[in-house]
Specification:
- There is one protein chain.
- With 205 residues, the protein is α/β, with parallel strands linked by helices.
- It has one domain.
- The chain contains five helices and six strands.
- It has a six-stranded mixed sheet.
- Helix 1 packs across helix 2 and helix 4 packs across helix 5.
- 30% of the residues are buried.
Length: 205
């Protein structure tokens, strides 16, 4: 029996919000645990956040699967490059309603305020992959490892403007769960959501 279109859309929106709650919760937990280091590569940070998603009781309550290729061991040394020694892990969250499976993806990129190459990479392999529909149904996460979020976003916007893409610049949008939340508008896909996780103030560094 087919599910009503409005019911499907409402379920999809609720699922997206739950994915946001899980990933933002993982970020905040990681700040409290003070494990993440500023010299980590993207996969290291993503691996640590994924561990917190898996351990979050809400994930089980909501019947959300991470569909990871391997469990994240707790007893391995967490030094630079440790995640590359594990099977590849993506931010792919899934759930079901009736016979329908819903997926949501997060693509993460390291960022530094004064590193133009990283900001260019955020555009070329992040924004562009969503705008071209290579990646679908998801959002971008920027792991800020140096500098300030607003200045880093200004740098990304300057590069977009330089490319003649002024209509696609990132704009700050109020979000109750995350202060550093932005959106951009793209002709092919509409709104793309950007979450910036600031790791620069970790007191153990």
């Amino acid at each position: 029996m087919a599910i009503n279109v409005d019911v499907c859309e409402a379920f999809r929106n609720t699922f997206e919000q739950r994915c946001f709650q899980l990933i933002i919760g993982a970020y905040k937990t990681s700040l409290n645990e003070k494990v993440i280091q500023l010299d980590w590569i993207e996969n290291d940070i993503s691996s640590e956040l994924l561990r917190h998603i898996i351990e979050n009781p809400l994930r089980r309550k909501w019947k959300v699967s991470t569909n990871v290729e391997a469990k994240i061991p707790k007893d391995i040394p967490r030094t630079k490059g440790f995640a590359d020694k594990l099977p590849r892990i993506d931010f792919r969250l899934t759930t079901f309603i009736s016979a329908y499976e819903y997926e949501y993806f997060f693509e993460a990129k390291n960022l530094k305020q004064n590193d133009s190459a990283l900001k260019r990479r955020y555009i070329d392999t992040g924004i562009n992959n969503f705008a071209s529909k290579k990646y679908t149904n998801g959002s971008l996460i920027g792991y800020l490892l140096e500098g300030k979020t607003n200045e880093t976003v200004e740098g990304i916007n300057s590069l977009l403007a330089k490319d003649g893409r002024n209509t696609e610049i990132l704009k700050s949008v109020e979000n109750r769960s995350l202060k550093t939340y932005f959106e951009s508008n793209h002709s092919n896909i509409g709104i793309l959501k950007h979450l910036f996780f600031d790791f620069t103030d970790l007191s153990n560094l």
